Amino acid sequence: MKSEMEEPLMVQIQLDHHNHQSPPSSPYTFTKPKSKRTKSILLLILASVVSVAITLGLLFVFCSTLRNRGNSFRYSVVIDGGSSGTRIHVFRYWIESGKPVFDFGAENYGSLKLSPGLSSYADNPEGASVSVKELVEFAKGRVPEGMLEKSEIRLMATAGMRLLEVSVQDQILEVTRGVLRSSGFKFQDEWASVISGSDEGVYAWVVANYAIGSLGGDPLQTTGIVELGGASAQVTFVSSEVVPPEFSRTISYGNVAYEIYSHSFLHYGQDEAEEELLESLQNSVVNSTEDGIVTDPCTPKGYIFDASSRKNSSVQAAGNFTECRSATFKILEEGKDKCPYNHCSIGSTFTPDLQGKFLATENFYHTSKFFGLEEKGWLSQMISAGKSFCGEEWSKLKEKYPTTKEKYLDGYCFSSAYIISLLHDSLGFALDDERIEFANKAGEKKISLDWALGAFILNTPTSTSGYSSKSRKMLR
C-alpha cells in the first residue's frame, strides 16, 4: 500500500462563473514531486541488490574452494607402537599453492588407542595382529575407500619394543606387516619399524615448534622438548655447543637447517625407573631390618602390596619424599664417574648446557596436572606437593582422591620425586626457571604434543599430482 506522501495530488480548477463558461468535464491531475525519503529507499534497494550480488559471488568462490579442496584431500596414517598401548593416528590434509596444509582439528584428525602395547606380545607375536587389525579398521572408517591405495600407512614402535631382543622385535614386526600389506593402504615393509629414541625426540620437537609457529624460523628461537614416557625419557633441543655426532640430528624445514641435540635415555622412563629402584632396594642392605625387610620411601605409608607383586615379601611402604628423591637421584647418577665427555647430566651420557625455552611433556604433564600445579614455578610447587603426598597415609589418600585408580594413585609419590631428580638435580633446571613449562598441547590451536604428529609432518610428500613417499624434509 502506498504511503500518504506517494499518492497523487488531486487539484480541481474551477473557472469563473461570471464569465459564463461551463465547468471542465474532468479535473486536472498533478503528481507530487518525489521526496528525499523516496530517493533513500531507491538507493537502499540498489545497495541491497549489489550486496546480494557480492555475497553470491563470494559464496560461489567459497563453494568452488571447498569443492577443489574436497577433490584434493589427502590422507596419511601413523601407528605409534608405544610401551603402554598402540595408537593409530589418521590425518587428512590438502594442497594449496603447491604446499601441504595441516589442520589437526576433529574433522581432519582422529586417533584411537588400544592396550596392551606391542611389546607385551613377546611370547605370542601372532597376538599382535588383533589390535593392529582393529586399528586399521578405525582408519578405514575415516579414509574414503577410493583413497586407500594412495594413502600411506606407517607403524613406528618405540621404547617398549626397543627393550626386547632384536629377534623378538622382528617377529612382532613381521606380524604387523602382514596386517598392513593386506589393509588396502599404501605400504612398504620398511614402513613398519622400531624407531630410535632420538627419532622419537626429534618428531616431538617438530610438532611442538610447528604448533608454536617457530618451525621454519631462527634455530636459536625454537623450543626444546623433555619427555618422560614409561620406558624412556627424551631430551631434544637446538644447542649452540659442538655436539658429538652420535647425539646430533639434522633436519631441514623450508630453507632452514636445524642441528639438534637429541637423545633417548632408555630405562629412564617413569615405569622403568621405578622398577630399577625396586631392584636397588631389594639388593640394598643399608635400610634392611633383621627380618630382611627393605623400606620403600617412594610408596605412601600403609600401602599393602598385591600378593603377586615382587615387593610383597621384601619391601615395606614408608613414604618419604626427601628419601625418595635421594634414591631416584642415585639411579640417575649411576655410571657418571665413567663419563667420557666434558659434561654428563645423566649417567655417562653427554648432555649440552640447557638453552632456550622447553616444554615438559607426557608424565611430566600428567603428574603436574594431578597435583594441580601452576605453570609458573611448578617445579618448586612439585616439591611441596610431593612431600605432602608421600607423607600421607594410604587410607587418607584414597579418601582424598576417590576417582583415581589405585594402580595410578600409589605412583605419584615416586613420580613427583623422580621429576625433581631428573629435571632439577640432574639436568639442572632451576626450581623457579620460567623457561620450562609442562604441557600436552601447544600453540593457539592447542595442537597435541604427540610425536606421531611430528612424524606425519616430516613424512608428508610435496607432490601435487599424486602421492609420493619422498619427504620434503631431511632427517639424519
Automatic annotation (TrEMBL):
Gene3D superfamilies: 3.30.420.40, Exopolyphosphatase. Domain 2
Matching Pfam families: GDA1_CD39
Highest taxon of source: Eukaryota
Example GO biological process: nucleoside diphosphate catabolic process
Active-site residues annotated for this sequence: E200
Annotated catalysed reactions: a ribonucleoside 5'-triphosphate + 2 H2O = a ribonucleoside 5'-phosphate + 2 phosphate + 2 H(+)
Enzyme nomenclature, EC number: 3.6.1.5
Entry binding sites for ATP: G230, A231, S232, A233, Q234
GO molecular function ontology, one term from the record: ATP binding
Entry's family note: Belongs to the GDA1/CD39 NTPase family.
UniProt-recorded name of the protein: apyrase
Organism name: Microthlaspi erraticum
